[in-house]
TrEMBL record:
Residues 24-106 form the Translation elongation factor EFTu/EF1A C-terminal domain. Keywords: Elongation factor, GTP-binding, Nucleotide-binding, Protein biosynthesis. This is Translation elongation factor EFTu/EF1A C-terminal domain-containing protein. Residues 149-170 are annotated as: Disordered. GO terms for molecular function: GTP binding; translation elongation factor activity. It comes from the Eukaryota. It comes from Heterodera trifolii. InterPro entries: Transl_elong_EF1A/Init_IF2_C, Transl_elong_EFTu/EF1A_C. The lineage of its organism: Eukaryota, Metazoa, Ecdysozoa, Nematoda, Chromadorea. The keyword GTP-binding applies.
Length: 170
């Protein structure tokens, strides 16, 4: 226990544990608002900034493959390194030099163990996304060769594919 005479101003002495996974609510900025034209896909890795820290985080969408600019959605982020986050803490999400989303953390989750932290599980999730939507939204051709998705049952013409390819060329 911290004695009252030992506490410094502007310091929080409340115990909290770092977590890897956090549920959030985000708003994906439209291009007119300074955001990106490219949708945000399941298992994308983006750079997140909040208060005094920044970290790479993997987007985990529930029940959908991607989110279009202008949409508000609840999703979960999986941090590469554990981060101290409080409910209602705000953050921004950036892709290269562009702010693509802003949001708020909703609640704390217990530390995730097991399959979510496994690299093979992540690879299988990304492969599943590519097979469902019919193209590689992640932009990394070497990853597609290593992952070897089976596109035989995938849709042939996905309108979102043009958005992903146009953003990759820019």
């Amino acid at each position: 226990m911290l004695a009252p005479n030992r506490a410094r101003p502007n310091v929080s002495a409340q115990p909290c544990a770092p977590n890897r996974a956090r549920p959030t609510e985000i708003y994906l900025l439209k291009p007119e608002e300074g955001g990106s034209k490219m949708p945000l896909a399941h298992m994308f890795k983006e750079h997140m900034f909040s208060l005094t820290w920044d970290s790479a985080a993997t987007v985990m969408l529930q029940g959908r493959d991607f989110v279009m600019p202008g949409e508000t959605v609840e999703l979960e982020f999986l941090f590469n390194t554990p981060q101290f986050v409080r409910p209602q803490q705000r953050f921004t999400l950036r892709h290269d030099k562009t702010t693509i989303a802003c949001g708020v953390f909703l609640e704390a989750l217990p530390e995730s163990e097991g399959e979510i932290r496994d690299k093979k599980w992540r690879k299988m999730q990304m492969r599943g996304v590519m097979e469902r939507i019919g193209f590689n939204p992640f932009g990394n051709r070497s990853f597609e060769r290593a992952c070897k998705p089976d596109y035989t049952n995938s849709p042939r013409d996905n309108p979102a594919e043009a958005l992903f390819k146009a953003e990759a060329k820019a």
